[in-house]
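cron nightly-structures :: item 1 of 1
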Amino acid sequence: MIIIFSGLLLRIALTIYNIEIDTLPGADADAGRFHEDAILYSLYLDVTDWFVGFKWEYDVGLIYGPFLGYFYNFFGSDSMYISGLLSCFVWLLSAFVFRKIMLKIKYEKKNIDLAILIYTFLIPTSIIYTSITLREVYILLFFNLFALSIINIYYESDIKKKFSNIIILLFTSFLLLILHEGHLYFFVIFIPLMIIYYCINKFTINKKTLFGLLIPILFCLDYYDYGEVIFDIIKNYQLGHFHNNPDRAAYYTMHEIKNIDYGLITLFIHTFKNFFYYFVEPTIYRIDNFKDVILFCENTVRLILLYFIIKKIFLKFKNKALFIIFLTMALLMEGIYAQGTVNWGTASRHHVPIMGIFILLAFFPSRKLR
C-alpha cells in the first residue's frame, strides 16, 4: 500500500507541475481538447439560451468531455485541477483493483510487491498519462474492473453473488464501449473467442479440427469481402492520424499507407507490421532524443514481461483458464490499438489501458497441477 500511495503523491505533484509550471509531454493536444470540450459542455448545461436549436450529440468515444463538464459545472469552476486530480484518484482506484486481483488469485507476496512497483513507477509515460486530462486512466480502471468481475464470477459459487458480478461486468463493458469506439471491435471478437474456448474445453474439441475449420472460414470472409472491409477500416483510420507536418516518430508515411492495396495476404502482413512496430518502436537505431530513450526502455520492460508471459503459455497450472482469458484480452486489445496507431508517441499512450492485465499475466502464479 505504501508503493501505491507514493505513486498517488507523485501523480498529484505532476498534476500541479503541469498546471503551475510547465506543460507535461502529451498534455497539450488531446488533453487540451478534452479540457476545452468539458468547458463548453459546462457552459451548455448553464446557459442553454446560447445554444438555441443546438442539441449536444453524445457520440461513442466523445463522452469523456461531457463527463468532465459535469464536474466542472458541479464545482462551478473550469480549473484543470479538477480533471487532473480526478485522473489521479481514478488511477488510485485502478491500483486498488489491480492489487485486489492479485490477492484473489493468490499471487506470492514478493510478486505482488514487484508487480505493483512496475504498475506504479516503472512505466514513466504511464505516470504522466495517468496524471493529466486523458481518458486512458479511466479505461485502465475499467479493464481492471472487467478482469476482477471475471475472477469473481469464476470463483463464486453463490448464485446471487455471481449474478451481481455479471451485472458489474456488463456495466463495466458498457463504460468501455462508450469511452472508445475501438472497444466495440474488442467485444465483437472477444465474445466469440471466449465461446470457442469454452466449447473446446467443454466438449474436448480437437485443436487440429478447429484449425482445419479456420482456413475455410478465412477464405469465406475474403470471398464475401469482409476482409476488404476490415482492411479499409484500418487504412482509413491510419490515414486520419497523419498531419500536414512530417512526423519524426511515425512508422510509415502517408504515401506508404495510401499505396497499399487490399489482398488477404497483404491484410495479414500489414496488421502484423502494425502490431510489431507498436511494440518495438522506437528501436535503438531510431532514438533521437531523451523521450525516445524513455520509450525504448519502456518497450524493453514490456518485452521482458512478454517473455515471461510466453513461457507460461506452454505450462499446465492452476487457473490456466483465467490466464488464457486475460491473455486474450491483452493481445486482442493491444492488437486493435496497434491497427489505429501510426507513431510511437501515440503507441506509448495506447499501452496504458491494458497495462494492468499485461503485468498480471507476467506474474501470474504458475503452480503445477497435482
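cron nightly-structures :: done
The chain has two domains: 1-157, 181-370.
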